[in-house]
Amino acid sequence: MNRKTLVLPTVVGLLAPVLAACGGVDGGGSSGDAIVVGTTDRFTASKEAPAPIDPAYAYDVGTWNILRQTVQTLMVQPRGDGEPAPEAAEKCGFTDSGNERYACTLRKDLKFSNGEAVTASDVKFSIDRARRIQADSGVFALLSTIDTVETKGDREVIFHLKTADATFPFKLSTPVAGIVNPDDYAKDKLRDGFDVDGSGPYTLHAEVKDDELVKAVFTKNSYYKGQLTPKNDKVEMRSFADAADMGTALSKGDIDLMTRTMSPEQIKKLDDDSAGDIDLVEMPGLEIRYLAFNTDAPTVKTKAVRQAMAQIINRAELVSKVYGDEAQPLYSLVPATITGHSNSFFNKYGEPSDIKAKTLMENAGVTTPVKLTLHYTTDHYGSATKQEFEELQKQLNASGLFKVTIKGAPWSTFRPAEKEGEYDVYGMGWFPDFPDADNYLAPFLDKDNFLNLPYANARIRDSLIPESRRQADRLTASTSLTDIQDIVADDVPVLPLWQGNQYIAARDGITGAEWALNSASTLQLWELGRGVSN
């Protein structure tokens, strides 16, 4: 029968030829046929991004969800969220009172999927490689607080940090810190294509067509040693062009489970349906959506223009018309469920007001209407994105202060154009690297930010971010974090819009769906199994 499951977090706050990976296969399991998972994530190798799943380059939730199955990290976020726990490591911890020296000891007899030993020097190679390459995705910035990496023997790794960083254990749980084999990865060059080799719970066989990964087959790695316990021997992940095609495949039984991104209409239908053999699982999510500004662009260089947009946009109406109960208005980059959140945008602008926006523009001497193009990606954040931008266009144009057009592009061209500064205003989403307020602020505001934004605030970069990272108690860090959010609300280099829930739909007989996503939208395929159909 159809039922809706609501999963509550334990702790809140804190994707040419067919390519195959080598590795041992653990046969004879009890999970039966491969579990087939559908996604609308698109994985494309292009001239601009030839190495989409190299850990030193990948920096979006889709590619990370491939790497998290295959490349092992020293730490991992546990099943029920909370503080990261040792994974490739046997133990890790700060060894000084200032949170500037962090040591890890590897598990004994740790091996890559080809049977070769994993050593401390491999960990150092992997971390130093990402820091050396400095890929234009900006993912290397997660390792920016590292000064040097030291090894002692084959099992001990010591990280000497430039400054205190209480969030460092979380960063070691992210794929950019994944351990790769120096035999497979050059130290100063990205690995093109869709090959990936590591020591994670699965090996990858990638089926590629026209430089796009269309199917990823994950097979249990017999050499894996860590805290995860795969409940299946094989999982197939298939990429669909849109949510409708994915939903049809689920209804026909061609796939067993579908994850991001379902349409609002699909979610509502599954929620309302009281019969059938598909279960809807709803989980609180930490995904946010926002507008980003090229503050050097003439159209939005004047702060009052950006402030006026913040004053006009009606988040409640946007969410109600497009996403319904699947999202909530957001008044900060930091979600409301994360420690350190402040409603800074609401505190500054209050309820939407065209009159107040007009006053802001007049006081700054801005000639209206301001002509703008809002850019969005057509295939990365779900089918409702276009409708969302149509609503934003309607609201801004209705004020008489703006003359807005909207333009969509596929992610494979959208993301490179955004990074090159070709868009004045554009829509993005953020799935956290780890569930801490720092990860909703530093990636946008610090040096080498992943958006390549020209906006720079010295107080944020030089004082407030370092101050917040010195506090192991994240409640104590709230003062610095609130100051950052207040500055963002005043300068508006980004404009938060909403925070969303996340959903999985699974056919009866699939177990573990309630654990298949954590709050940071990490896909935990090892949790899936086959049980008895209802």
Describe the structure.
By secondary structure, the protein is α+β, with helices and mostly antiparallel strands. Helix content is 25%, strand content 23%. It contains 14 helices and 22 strands. The strands form four sheets. Strands 1, 2, 3, 4, 11, 12, 13, 14, 15, 16, 17, 18, 19 and 20 form a 14-stranded mixed beta sheet that branches. Strands 7-8-10-9 form a four-stranded antiparallel beta sheet, with helices on one face. Helix 6 runs antiparallel to helix 9 (354-363). The chain is globular, with a radius of gyration of 23 Å. 52% of the residues are buried. Mean pLDDT is 90; it is low at 8-31. Keywords: Signal, Transport. One of its GO terms (biological process) is peptide transport. Belongs to the bacterial solute-binding protein 5 family.
